[in-house]
Write a structure and sequence with these properties.
This protein is mainly α. The chain has helices at about 1-5, 15-20, 30-45, 55-65, 75-90, 110-125, 135, 145-155, 160-180, 185-190, 200-210, 215-230, 240-255, 260-270, 275-290, 305-310, 330-345, 370-380, 385-400, 405-415, 445-450, 460-470, 490-500, 500-505, 510-515, 520-535. Among the domains are: about 1-100, no CATH class; about 140-305, Alpha Horseshoe (Leucine-rich Repeat Variant), CATH 1.25.10; about 325-340 and about 385-430, no CATH class; about 500-535, no CATH class. It contains 26 helices and no strands. About 15% of the residues are buried.
């Protein structure tokens, strides 16, 4: 019976609220019934304001939600609530009271202006307006319609260049994060892809952000060719070529099918470029395609096969690679089997040394964790692919994985990129993997486009400023001036030093300087050294 009573309209306020919002004229009688009930509860509340009333709170919330549906009946509802709070705020129940004594200050216009100014100043000082919250873009009702409206506004906009840049940034984030189809955005961006364009690195960043695997490869190919033809040419400087290769790498990382074999081979030739920045950028592009699609590279650029390169498979456009298991989860099952095997064995084993080792020489001992990781890796390599998939599916469906488990899986997947393929010699005996390496996120950073592997040379002004900043005040080591009167004239000896050589070339001192004998030069050197020694004292 209780469930039946809860489904009745007069007592089930949430259901009645939903129905009233859909069709207000059809439920006027039910609303009036609840409105009269609300008035009677208000009268009871005025008699005992300190008594908690859950029913009154529910009715107030109900009236506030449907106030716009019946404005003729609830026109005085806000003022009634305000009066109740103003007159009874000292004795109101804490759960029922919404605002304290400061509620009456809201009617003061000066106070409202002051509060607004303080809020704006606080936001400006804390720089909240510079923070990016990607979750805000997920609250938009219709992503495609919003992006199309922004693009239409951008194409016909006559605002400043900074405003256009902000619109391009927002559109690229929407397209990249939500994988939208906005084909007209890419030709619009290509118009600005010139080395002399202002803020061109940011525009390249927007082009990379707007790329994803659902865009047809033909559209992204034109974008790649524009970047390659305008940036990656020998007539440009090394920094411009580096920025272009970095942009191509980030675009193809999100849409691998857009890269053609001819363009990739041309870019791979820059691996031996004389500029170190261009050379390193080309190597990072080659390393990317070693894991994405090694078959597109020439044989000399593919490197030694690894587990990741052997398992790599090129997906066609629109193909979905959905798995019913977590790739790499089989390592958890193998580690568990290793632990069980160790527990079954005895904890201690007798250590015996041969007579050949009893000569006092040092013995190389490797860390046990390295040996365990090597054994686990060998077991996984010898395991068939179907068995590995079965173990990974069993682990994924039989237990709840913790953060430590996901960390182990991620390290195992990273190890596949370094371990040699089955049947090949290992690249390294011991491999160190940085577990803190940052993974590629949804949003790009400008550092990914502007990354220079070699520090650029400083100009003359920068070097002089650095030298002057490094100098300290060393007055105690500076030779003191011997002039007694600072306002006196200079001596004849000082004047001779400042005279032009053409005026002094026929003087006796100059003509006789080259005619001194070895003995005279020896005596002059002795006198100079003695004079210098006296000064040092």
């Amino acid at each position: 019976m209780s469930n039946r009573n809860n489904n009745k309209l007069p007592s089930n306020l949430p259901q009645l609220q939903n129905l009233i919002k859909r069709d207000p004229p059809a439920y006027v009688e039910e609303f009036l019934q609840q409105y009269n009930h609300y008035k009677s509860n208000v009268e009871i509340f005025k008699l005992q304001p300190n008594k908690p009333s859950k029913e009154l709170a529910e009715l107030v919330l109900f009236m506030a939600q449907i106030g716009h549906c019946y404005p003729e009946h609830l026109s005085n509802f806000p003022q009634e609530l305000k009066d109740l709070l103003s007159y009874n705020h000292t004795v109101l129940d804490p759960d029922l009271r919404m605002v304290g004594p400061v509620f009456g200050l809201i009617t003061c216009a000066v106070f409202i202006v002051c509060v607004c100014v303080v809020c704006v100043c606080t936001i400006f000082k804390r720089e909240h307006y510079t923070d990016l919250d990607p979750q805000c873009t997920s609250l938009i009702f219709s992503f495609p319609d919003f992006a199309e409206k922004l693009l239409k506004q951008l194409e016909s906009s006559k605002e400043r260049f900074e405003v256009k840049m902000m619109l391009m940034n927002l559109i690229s984030r929407l397209v990249g994060i939500h994988e939208l189809f906005l084909f007209n955005f890419y030709p619009f961006v290509q118009r600005f892809l010139q080395p002399h364009q202002r803020e061109v690195t940011k525009i390249l960043l927007f082009a990379a952000q707007a790329s994803h695997h659902l865009v047809p490869p033909e559209i992204i190919q034109s974008l790649l060719m524009t970047v390659a033809n305008n940036f990656v040419t020998d007539k440009n400087s090394g920094e411009v070529m580096t920025v272009g290769i970095n942009a191509i790498k980030e675009i193809t990382a999100r849409c691998p099918l857009a890269m053609t074999e001819e363009l990739l081979q041309d870019l791979a030739q820059y691996k031996t470029h004389k500029d170190k920045n261009v050379m390193m950028s080309a190597r990072t592009l080659i390393q990317l395609f070693r894991s994405l699609n090694p078959q597109m590279l020439q044989k000399k650029f593919r490197g030694k096969p690894t587990e990741a390169s052997v398992e790599a498979r090129v997906q066609k456009y629109g193909e979905l690679d959905a798995k019913d298991y977590i790739p790499g989860a089989e390592i958890l099952e193998v580690e568990k089997e290793e632990e069980n095997a160790e527990n079954d064995e005895d904890g201690w084993e007798s250590a015996s040394l041969d007579e050949e080792d009893d000569d006092g020489e040092w013995v190389d001992v490797h860390h046990s964790s390295d040996e365990e990781q090597q054994e686990i890796s060998n077991r996984l390599n010898s395991m068939p692919v179907e068995e590995r998939k079965a173990k990974a599916a069993a682990v994924s469906t039989s237990r709840v994985l913790t953060q430590e488990d996901f960390q182990k899986i991620r390290l195992a997947q990273m190890r596949k990129e370094l371990d040699a393929a089955p049947g090949k010699a290992p690249k390294r005996k011991y491999i160190e993997i940085d577990s803190d390496e940052e993974s590629r996120g949804e949003l790009l950073s400008l550092r990914d486009i502007e990354r220079l592997h070699k520090k650029p040379k400083s100009d003359k002004e920068t070097r002089l400023a650095t030298a002057m900043a490094g100098k300290t005040d060393r007055k105690e080591f500076v030779r003191k001036k011997t002039k007694m009167n600072p306002f006196s004239s200079s001596t004849n000896k000082e004047k001779k030093k400042q005279k032009n050589f053409m005026m002094m070339r026929y003087s006796h001192n100059v003509r006789s300087k080259n005619k001194r004998s070895f003995r005279e030069k020896q005596l002059a050197l002795r006198d100079a050294l003695l004079k210098k020694r006296k000064r040092m004292k």
